[in-house]
Predict the 3D structure of the following.
Amino acid sequence: MCFFYALSKTAQSLANRYQLGDGLDWPMEAGLSAPKYYVSGFDFPKMPVLTNAEPARLQVLAWGLIPSWVKTPAQAAQIRSKTLNARAETALEKPAFRQAIRQRRCLVPADGFYEWRTFNGKKYPYYISLKGRAVFSFAGIWAEWVDPATGEILKTYSILTTEANPLMAKIHNTKKRMPVILPRDEERTWLQDGLSAAELQALMKPFPAELMEAHTISRLITSRTENRNQPQVQEACVYPELDDI
């Protein structure tokens, strides 16, 4: 599962990371005018992605996929909270995802994400990143939906999830899931047209645990009164009752 992540890098640093050159076309009013230390999928934020349709340009899409066949705004509002993630094992079959995963794939840049570990009946938050905190890409899928009331075209995305690697199995120890993180040399493969079901499944595998790191963080992340979009949300916090990951 992946409902909360971070992207604290600037638009220009993302352009450099994805080798976009001078093709950066970035709507700053909806983009990274400020670092995103914490975003919640349940707010349906607009975040940068690279799609297979325009792989050389960062675009802003809303998190929470709305399939093109959705008929009403009410139905769209209902489905998007259920499509923040798509299970890799069933995405090729589920009506909400099967067209998107075959035809509309994207890279979702991030530099960390958040998950909770259950221990003795309590939940403990963790911040997880790659070693060195480099930008990485979640495997995503996207869709276009036309609001019948206004004619507005809304582009949305979902993040694929897969079975947990050993590190994530210790943290997300109830459902043992993790987002699909693509190795850098497989990012452009994910965006290629014409991939078979077998080729797609081969890409949606657990990322190597030895290339990741994680630490417990404070419960600032669950505060309803404080601003969670600040660097402190990612700072390490020790809980003596927990064993080491």
